[in-house]
Amino acid sequence: MKKLYRKLVLMRNPLSRHSSRVFNDRKWIIPFLASLLMSITLFFSAIFGVFNAPHGGDQLPMPLDVVSVAKTEDSSGYFVESDLNKLFNTMGSSSLEAPRLAYLISGTKGDSNRMMRTLQAVYHPRNQYVLHLDLEAPPRERLELANAVKNDPTFAEVKNIRVMAQSNLVTYKGPTMIASTLQAIAILLKESLEWDWFLNLSASDYPLVTQDDLLHVFSNLSRNFNFIEHTQITGWKLNQRARPIIVDPGLYLSKKSDIAWTTQRRSLPASFKLYTDAGVERSDILIFES
């Protein structure tokens, strides 16, 4: 009997030693779970501490909270949009949209059809237009031009075209041409101020680009940009252009004729300076007060 008991003890010993070794190997699980639970608790407490402002005291719970509660104005300088906004503010709000152009289309006897052709080629609903058919054209032709504009459904709906009722006798080398241009500009300024540049066209002009392309190119320019390159009249131009006296018959006659040059000469003005367009050889004189 004793021998049998010993054999049972000997058979149990390997099992007991194996179970105790397994139990000893699993002792690390309890500290691991405790550490994991504590880490999760600290993690969530840190998150809620950052995004929830403290109720007592003015100090922030963590330095990281300085970024979370910073004003948007303070962080806007880190992005390129801030520089673009400053650029747009300096350029003005009008530069953010497509510009508006003002046109004067002038013609004489027999130019009514060509004026309509030019008008249709440069037409855009954003623009303003003035048509002037001079006094040399018969009244019937001027009436046909006005009816053609009135009967066009697009022109009648947008209402941005004006036909000058008072026709002027224009000499295309004299001051009557400038007077007609200034009268058209006065009409445009009276009817609408929503235009940025003025273009003076004749019935024989025709555009090389569409109005959409032209407005797209002009939208990148400053509204204060002037395309007139002027220079002061000096040297031989003083005697050739400033001193001669020119008589324009269109100022006092009802029939067009060429300008007349007198033999007398005038003295140069002392109260203002004379300027001329530097882009062409022959041009109109621009007068700016000094």
TrEMBL record:
One of its GO terms (molecular function) is glucuronosyltransferase activity. InterPro entries: GLCAT14A/B/C, Glyco_trans_14. GO terms for cellular component: membrane. It is a single-pass type II membrane protein. Keywords: Glycoprotein, Glycosyltransferase, Membrane, Transferase, Transmembrane, Transmembrane helix. It is found in: Membrane. This is Core-2/I-branching beta-1,6-N-acetylglucosaminyltransferase family protein isoform 2. It comes from Hibiscus syriacus (Rose of Sharon).
